[in-house]
Amino acid sequence: MKLLFWLPRAICIMAILFISLFAFDAFESGLNFWQQAGHFMLHLIPSFILLVILAVASKWEKIGGIIFMLIGIGFSPFIFQLNYHRNNFPFWNCVLIVMAVALPFVLVGILFLLSDHYKKKETTTTIS
Question: Is residue 16 within 8 Å of residue 68, measured between CB atoms?
Fold first, then answer.
């Protein structure tokens, strides 16, 4: 059961770190250090929001699981559209990008829900 407790948290941290890598796009030539630092911090806002949701999910696994599943499923069409229409990537490349970016959060949501379910099941079994 400890694995089911720690696995969603570990996967979520890795997924947030992966998302955070995209913030390095903020560093471009022609801007001074403070402008680049400001852009970098703006690009990290999604990562900060995901960290807050992870903290919520650690306290209330069911709510966090639902939120992470909604994030993964909800942003999939936007990620696909962005890469397919704006960047003109081939269809299957867009599908792979969606899977790399959104699927980990769906998996984290499922794992948080499973962890909550088994935790309640253990509590009910020990009380009976």
Answer: no
Q: Where are the domains of the chain?
A: 2-127
Q: Which residues contact 113 (CB under 8 A, 6 or more apart)?
A: 61, 62, 65, 66, 69
CA distance 42 to 39: 5
Query: What's the pLDDT tens digit per position in 29-45?
Result: 788 888 888 989 999 99
Q: Locate tokens 């699981």: which residue? A: 65
C-alpha distance from residue 5 to each of 1, 79, 98, 115 (Å): 6, 29, 26, 6
- Expressed in percent and rounded to 5, the helix, strand and coil fractions of the chain are 90, 0, 10
**Which structure tokens are listed for 104?**
């980990």
